[in-house]
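Thread: quick sanity check before group meeting

JM: Hey all, I'm pulling together slides for Thursday and realized we never actually wrote out the predicted structure for the chain we discussed last week. Dropping the sequence here so it's in one place. If anyone has concerns about the input, flag it before I start.
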Amino acid sequence: MNAYGSIFHPGKSIGKDMRSLIIDDILSRGGDVSTEYYPGSFKAIGSKCKVSGVTVSKVWKTFCQTGENLPRHSAARGQPKRLEEPELDLVQLLIKCRPLRIYKDIKENIEAHSTAIDSISTIGCAVRERLLEGKMTWKKMMRPAGEKFTTDNIAYCQSYVNFMGTLVPFCIKFFDEAGFKLPDCANPKYGHSVVGQPCIEIMRNTQMANVTLNLLYGLNGVMYANTLNGASNTLEFLNFFHEASLMGTLSLNMETSEW
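JM (edit): ok, ran it. Output follows.
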């Protein structure tokens, strides 16, 4: 029971009959639906109907904006308010293309292609509850090892082995591209802590300088290699083979061997 003597249920709005009574009372006292103007006091009508003046004001504003005396239902807790079907389809596509994509990256893609800007937590709720293909959870990725032993892959592998068997071993060259990070490179070594206590910083992932290694080798050992600061790209990939071919031409002239 509230302070006005009316019985109510927590989380449940007042009934339709009470709302109609409040709206009729406001209209009879000079309320204007088009401007939401009411010259009287909401508190006076609330005392008459045994509800608060704030409740009367909300009922009146809802009626003026929607034309109905029904309660305005807000989105359920945890459900996105602004992500509609196009945005949900985009979220699903981004996750299917790259399952390890984080919610922050998804949010940036939505902002770039849609006006619906929402929080990261809302995107997480959409992934777990609202996607068309079903609920998704965050789990450890697995590599489909069984795919290596399909009939097509086994036949392809055997064809590759047969072809390599027809070549001269010293004419075979191998290429490898690998990315690695240098430890303790460009990382701060000093920080603040309480006097008499060690300074310890706990990180989930320590970011270090990334380096890409391009390597060309054969039975004679390493033939050519270079390193790049950061990740590689198609232009750097082609440039590596161009440089390696020049080095191979020099070795051809000096050693008269096929590169």
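AS: nice. The mean pLDDT is 77. The CA atoms of residues 30 and 39 lie 7 Å apart.
JM: adding both to the slides.
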